[in-house]
Amino acid sequence: MLEWIGAACFMILLAILWPVVKCFGAESHSTTLLLPQRESKRSAERCDSKLEGQGESATVALICKPSALANYLLKHCMTFCKSLSIPKWNWRMSSSLQTVFGALWPFDCPVHFIRDHLQLSDDGLVALDWAVVGAAHHKRRRTSSNSTSPVLLIIPNSYGKITRNVLKLCEAALSHGYLPVIFNRRSQNGTPLCTIKLQQFGDPTDLREAVRYIRYRQPAGQIYAVSESTGSGLLLSYLGECGSSSYVTAAACLSPVFRCQSWFESGPTRPFNWALLLYQKICLSRYKTVLGELVHTDNLFSSCSLKAMEETLFCHSGSKGVTADGGGSWEAYWERNDPLRDIDEVAIPVLCVCSQDDPIRGDDQATLPFELFESNPHFFLLLTAHGGHCGFSTADEGPIVWSHQALLEFFRATTDFFAAEERAKLAARRRGVSGTGKTFRHRSVSTCKRLPVCSHNIHAIYNWQRSYTR
């Protein structure tokens, strides 16, 4: 119902602002992508292409530290060098309309979901929604532990909204042979709240147990991870804390928010800030009684900003004699939850797909950590001139969204690259060569060298009695 209301508002907005959109599109069309100029010799690898024939020009840039993997990606990922063809008169030139379309526009998706309720070590529940095609698969079904199909773990935004883009990504992943599974946090997307505890913004504890359960269920399949919007904070926190023991082969972030503390303090533009705040209040209103044992719900539901709501929930500014673990101040909260706090420990390739006109994240010069991509060989930034926030819709769009095609190509290319590296090392050993040549150092979790930090036995927790499915 909310999707159709949003779609109606979208059409009304489009009808009212169409002349403005046309002017905006024409003005934006004449501007090429301006990348930050760096005096350092570690210049970013860039792949520029221009669409000819109709006088249109759009640029896609790959910004990263030069490496063998970067060269391989530029050679084998055709989407990285494919312009987003958007005519100057098209509504897709408006970043706001792109964002609304990707989040709220209804989508008749053929994908269905089978839900696993996973009970955690503290008796809380998270939900894993496995994507399948066709109504015939609604019968009780569990993925075979002998399956070698790769698993695509999808982390939606931190508000739990399953957007059109997430559904389209599930459909695209199924067509490419993946087993897509959506991670739903406590209390989100119909997941029961069994403990008086919500997941903090960058706390990867629940996600860590979910990944281990997926690994336990699918030991023969590689795991890839994709996050959307503010959900990237959770994914980056997990990859940083776990390092080479993350069990993930490669990851991608769609329109991530990097500087999260300042983003909560300043917030997105007013219409989007109001929409996010209202959606979160609607979701939390279901648990108003139980949350009343922890915080003052009057302060919670009267919050006028995302910061005030986050602070009330987790910093306990209005708590009833309850203090947060490790301190209750706003600064202490972000010391524990900043997604970039352990970013140097990330040990797998990570692709971040962003647009310059993102109305949610804000100005790219202030919100994108270019120095991270230019100095860390594990991070790759695919930057476009247009696309909005998790939009990236094009006029000649096929069955797969441009950003989804890019990340699927990225996963395939990185897997092939490291497989070739392993074959080369094996051949060198057979020839008796020491293998001192310079290669990209890959610390994939598929060959985990150290045990993950875990205070409990996975086989004692993840059994048929502790996993519930509806």
Helix content: 25-40%
**Biggest β-sheet description:** 10 strands, mixed
Given the helix and strand composition, which structural class is it? Answer: alpha/beta
N to C succession of SSEs = HEHHEEEHEHEHEHHHHHHEHHEHHE
Q: Count of DSSP helices? A: 16
Instruction: Give the N-to-C terminal Cα separation.
Output: 23 Å
Share of β-strand residues: 5-15%
Could you characterize what this model shows?
With 470 residues, this protein is an alpha/beta fold. The protein is 37% helix and 13% strand. The chain contains 16 helices and ten strands. It has helices at 2-29, 68-76, 95-104, 164-175, 205-217, 232-242, 260-266, 270-284, 288-291, 297-301, 306-315, 330-337, 364-367, 370-375, 402-430, 458-461; strands at 60-63, 111-119, 125-133, 151-155, 179-184, 223-228, 250-254, 350-355, 379-384, 467-469. It has a ten-stranded mixed sheet, sandwiched between helices. The longest helix has 29 residues, at 402-430.
